[in-house]
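Handout, page 2. Input:
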Amino acid sequence: MEYKHLFFDLDDTFWDVRSNQEAAQRELFATFGMADHYPDFDTYYRTFREINQKLWTEYRDGIVSRETLRNQRFVRLLESAGVHDEPLAMDMSNEYLRISPTFNALMPHSKEVLDYLYDKGYAMSLITNGFNEVQFHKVEYSGLKKYFQRITTSEFAGIGKPNPGIFEYAMRKAEVSPDECIMIGDDVYTDIYGSSTAGMPSVFVNPSGMEHDQHPRYEIRSLLELKDIF
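Output:
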């Protein structure tokens, strides 16, 4: 084997964020009576996505804390509809964190490819910026747990992707050097640029064929193409 260890991103590499997030938000919309404040679910969900993405970007860049991300996204969501009710926002936040990892839609061919790599004897781990309690439950509920030796989160490492520190932390835990491993992920900035700053080669999973200025060792449109690499 050319690589002793394969590192993977979780969200949108394996775990289908859009499908699972929408399913969880539909449940919240009904449970908390959001139809009283929004004309329809699509308006509610579009607003949540915009707020959530902005806060995640700020969290990734070190502008806001984990607590601000967790607590403010539903405060701002409600405020966008003219509702100023922090206890309600906290209830929605807690329920979202509870139910979101229980939805388990995966990206196409996830388990087929993981079975292939697992059967070939590859050591595999995850590197993710998500919250511990959410990411571990995602892996459990989606049936991915058996494939991975370790889950490195930004909470464990004390720093998130794309900072090289989280990749260096994961390599230390796996006892491998940059030339003995490879990073596979769907985000050209956090996964591909981030791993390159730690000296790691990478595989960019790029289903849409987006243009970019990074230099992964491999670029693929489908997870199935990993079978041709490994």
